[in-house]
Write a structure and sequence with these properties.
The protein is α/β, with parallel strands linked by helices. It is 37% helix and 15% strand.
């Protein structure tokens, strides 16, 4: 990677973070120690949730939440086609069917207006994703779920620190999952967390991350029982030490992201051919991603060409994501076809993710803006 390359996302690790990790490495507690619960309680309190369970990745968090929801063979789960592969892959692995829906043009989140038409006797849950950090229309989704006795598992991998109608994301859905991958708002390297206000879910989640082993000390100090299968989804104490240190800088991270977004918006909103992200008035996004859409009625080339030109100039643009219903597995296994969800397909043809991360300097931000303007103006 060239020294002047600007990636679309990057972690911000400082000496304080490193010091906290070293303390744990010297303490003797590497796994199943007190730092895990400390991290869980800090995030739960911030999000106004009763319970939190930290696990080894965001994908593990989704898997554990699906397990707690008893999603299995033959069950249907409604999910946006615009999402990372993990959320739908696990449904399929568990023997369920991902029932994809289209997105809203402005927020890029799950379109709820036709949601009820997707519900059948096999429907078990709705999994809205807070795309790019902008929370879904949770009131409407929760209303529909309650009407049909469904669970809502909010995929908030993008939206830690975001707010919906004055409430921090993490306590509204039946279960909410976060990711702490390096490109996310805060990182533990790999890692994830499930938040819930339901004690039964909490107990199941705690057991599942540790093989569903339940100790029975009255029968002996060694004795345990397994009443249902579980997996090793444990997170380490040194990861949680990093997570706590990062968590204490979250306000600063969000502010820097919003400052960059404001600078981007001030420029790009005045450029023909660029559509900037939308943020509704009752939302406070923590802006995991900054995605522009290209208007090819004005720009006389392809998205591929724009993407390649920016990459050549060391601007590490990306595309989030290829719609899930277009992936070969979902087409072959479940019969999805091109044209099924026109809004997400149109978005995909036009989307480019620009660099956005807390350590991004003003010089780098201005360079991204200058380069995007130069590249696009060359195809007007």
């Amino acid at each position: 990677m060239k020294s002047d390359f600007i990636p679309y996302g990057r972690q911000y690790i400082d000496n304080k973070d490193i010091d906290e990790i070293v303390k744990i490495l010297k303490s003797g507690w590497l796994v199943q120690g007190p730092k895990i619960e400390e991290f869980e309680k800090a995030v739960a309190k911030y999000c106004n949730a009763k319970y939190a369970v930290a696990v080894s990745s965001g994908t593990a968090a989704l898997h554990a939440a699906y397990f707690a929801a008893k999603i299995g063979f033959g069950d249907e789960v409604i999910i946006s086609s615009l999402n990372f592969a993990a959320a739908s892959n696990i449904i399929a692995i568990l023997g369920g069917r991902p029932v994809f829906v289209d997105i809203q043009k402005d927020t890029l989140n799950m379109e709820f207006k036709n949601l009820e038409k997707k519900i059948t006797k096999k429907t078990k849950a709705i999994v809205p994703v807070d795309f790019a950090g902008h929370p879904c229309d949770l009131d409407e989704i929760m209303r529909i779920a309650k009407k049909y006795n469904l669970l809502v598992i909010e995929d908030a991998a993008h939206s830690l620190g975001s707010e919906y109608r004055g409430c921090r994301i993490g306590s509204i859905a039946d279960m909410t999952i976060f990711s702490f991958h390096p490109v996310k708002l805060i990182t533990t390297g790999e890692g994830g967390m499930i938040l819930t206000n339901n004690k039964k879910f909490y107990e199941k989640l705690k057991k599942f991350r540790h093989h569903s082993i339940v100790k029975k000390p009255k029968k002996g100090g060694w004795y345990y029982e397994i009443e249902e299968p579980g997996l090793n989804m444990r997170i380490t104490d040194f990861q949680c030490a990093l997570g706590l240190s990062q968590f204490n800088k979250m306000k600063e991270f969000i502010k820097r992201r919003k400052d960059i977004v404001a600078e981007y918006n001030d420029t790009f909103k005045n450029i023909n051919g660029i559509i900037i992200p939308s943020e509704r008035e009752y939302i406070k996004s923590s802006y995991h991603l900054y995605i522009i859409q290209l208007d090819f009625n004005i720009i006389k080339t392809s998205r591929k060409k724009i993407f390649e030109e920016l990459q050549k100039r060391n601007i590490g643009v990306q595309v989030h994501y290829i719609p899930l219903h277009l992936q070969p597995f979902y087409r072959k296994k479940f019969g999805y076809r091109k044209g099924d969800f026109p809004v997400v397909e149109n978005y995909y043809k036009r989307a480019i993710t620009l660099p956005l991360f807390p350590k991004m300097t003003g010089t780098q931000t201005r360079r991204v803006i200058k380069t995007v303007k130069e590249v696009i103006s060359g195809y007007m």
